[in-house]
Amino acid sequence: MSDEITSAVMTALSKQGQAAALDFPTAFRTAAEQVRITPEEAELVVKQRNGQEKNSPNLSDRARAEFLSRRFAEAARLSEQAGEDKLARSRVVGEAARQLVDGAVADFTRAGEALLAQEKPAEALARFSRALDLAPRTDSATRWATLQMWIGCCHWELRRRVEGPAANRHLQVAATAYGDALMVYTPEQFPEDWARAQNNLGNALSEQAGRTEGAKAAGLLSEAVVVFRAALTVRTREQLPQDWGRTQNNLGNALSDQASRSEGAAPAPLISEAEAAHRAALTAFTRKQFPQAWAAAECNLGDALWDQAQRSAGALAARLRGEAVAAYRAALKVQTRKQFPEDWAATQLKLDFALSEQVGSREGATAVAVCREVLKVYPRGKLPQAWARAQTYLGIALYAQARRNEGTAAARLLAESVEAYREAMKVQTREQLPQHWAHTQVAMGMALSEQAEGSEGVAAARLLGEAIAAYREAMKVYVHEQFPQDWAMTQHNLGVAMSEQARRSQEGAEAARLLGEAVSVYRGALKVYTREQFPQDSAMTQRCLGSALWDQAGQSEGAEAARLLSEAVTAYREAVPVYTREESPQEWATTQHSLGLALREQAGRRKGAAAARLLGEAVAAYREALKVWTAHEFPDDYDMASRNLGLAEEALRKLHR
């Protein structure tokens, strides 16, 4: 019984190590189910066995006892010593040599597992590779496949500890190793091993897609979705609930990535499937038993709900945003600042942004502090990709904090934000991490644009020029065909920067050129940001388009000015049905006021009944805006809208005299 239980626990831990972090309580439960005892009894048996073997003359037994006692450094040392001893003896004992070599393979494998448990993947890889050199596929195909899985896991870990081409090489070797294991692990003979290899391969393919551009990336994502679905034919909720939950989570992430590369009606079902997958994962993980997996599923669910909210309007969008906020808050109950600083920072920033879209947030300063702490935990020299992510998170947090400040404080925070993004892109290069690079270029462009708002003259022009350059760089990766949503977002931001640069330009011809380009990129963005698919983004872009057309009309005369004003009115009218007074009062009031201005300007170019009709519509629009912009809550906006309402009413009275 003791041998059976100890072996079952070691086997369970070995399988865990090839897919996730070691989980001893789950290993004890798995072993207990096999021999029909309680997990507590299984743990007691192993503890007693460890006590018996810790002073054993057999180095392999002592190494196993140390491993099961979670003293991984000593387990690795003893396993290495045992393996070397067996190899030395195998050279002189003749017929027992094969048995000793097999024992050495087992010892080196255990040494690798112990080193990997200590987060020493490079050292672990050396042990697994040595074991593989001693264990050709012809001797034992299953052992060879197991070692391929371990080698894949080491390269998977190593890919985040290096930067540049080395990271891609580790990722490619990991995918190849998992593929090699699948040459042995068939679903008929080794269903669980096959499903685990499929799951790991899917993760490698998904990350490869994130490091690739164009059609190749889309193909890798499609492959990932296929292999995750294949793994789920074995990893069922009934037979392997935790493995099923992990693969559902991975599938949900891959589907979300696919949705981000789609446009029109295609993304909606993908996001719904992603949400369903993350909700399914949450049924497999309880916060008490599997806290980290549960928190990851909650965070991923929040992402899927937020994506859906961006494609919805009115009460539905508000409900989805509220559910996303609740999911992020749930994740943060586990992803604490002390225990998981990087996860905390990432989820906290998502929550902070979601709250700012609702009622405002005051958590940005805390996020900045934690991001700085994360940078101490993940130095660039040891974990460059984690360091770069932390720099990006820091840039986002600083940007959010800057928007809550004014004057010199805001300027300082924005400058620090830009610097953080520039630091991140030293690792997140276009060649190695194109999507991360493009995302950071866009974020930097937004910070530079915000800096320009607080600047004047040459300084403002320079900052806007840098923002425009950053957006153009991002669009080298965010092409319409591969990343329609990111492309549309970048087009919109580019239009905003160009419009602002035009307003600040002292040269009429240059301002006209910039406004023309701004109108063009807004119209481009609206090919993706349709009211049906992205109502909120559509309304925001329509409002910006209206403003650019209004500015163009101000630089034009006669029939051309009239045409541009008419198009501006149309753009504002397109935005109004999305920006409802109940759900988005400020945006709704701003759009109504802008509509009133355009209508009044149109009326000034007409006569008689046509002018009276347009002035009447302008008066109605101003009055709608004043339902939100009250004298008590928004005195400046109230004064502006009241003044314009008075001018429109006076013009209307003159027409009726």
Low-confidence runs = none
Helix content: over 70%
Specify the structural class: mainly alpha
Query: What is the rounded distance between the termini?
Result: 105 Å
Number of helices: 28
Task: Tell me the β content.
Answer: under 5%
Q: What kind of sheet is the major sheet? A: none
SSE run: HHHHHHHHHHHHHHHHHHHHHHHHHHHH
Radius of gyration: 31 Å
Average pLDDT confidence is 89
| DSSP, total strands | 0
Identify the overall geometry.
Answer: elongated
Question: Can you describe this structure?
Answer:
- Helices cover 77% and strands 0% of the residues.
- By secondary structure, it is mostly helical.
- The relative contact order is 0.04.
Name the descriptors:
657 residues, 0% strand, elongated
In short:
This protein is mainly α and about 650 residues long. About 75% of the residues lie in helices and about 0% in strands.
Topology:
Blueprint: H1 2-17, H2 24-35, H3 39-53, H4 59-68, H5 72-90, H6 97-117, H7 121-134, H8 141-158, H9 165-181, H10 191-210, H11 214-231, H12 241-260, H13 267-284, H14 291-310, H15 314-332, H16 341-358, H17 364-377, H18 384-402, H19 407-424, H20 434-453, H21 457-474, H22 484-504, H23 508-528, H24 535-554, H25 558-575, H26 585-603, H27 608-626, H28 635-656
Helix pairs in contact: 1-2, 1-3, 2-3, 3-4, 4-5, 4-6, 5-6, 6-7, 7-8, 8-9, 9-10, 10-11, 10-12, 11-12, 12-13, 12-14, 13-14, 14-15, 15-16, 16-17, 16-18, 17-18, 18-19, 18-20, 19-20, 20-21, 20-22, 21-22, 22-23, 22-24, 23-24, 24-25, 25-26, 26-27, 26-28, 27-28
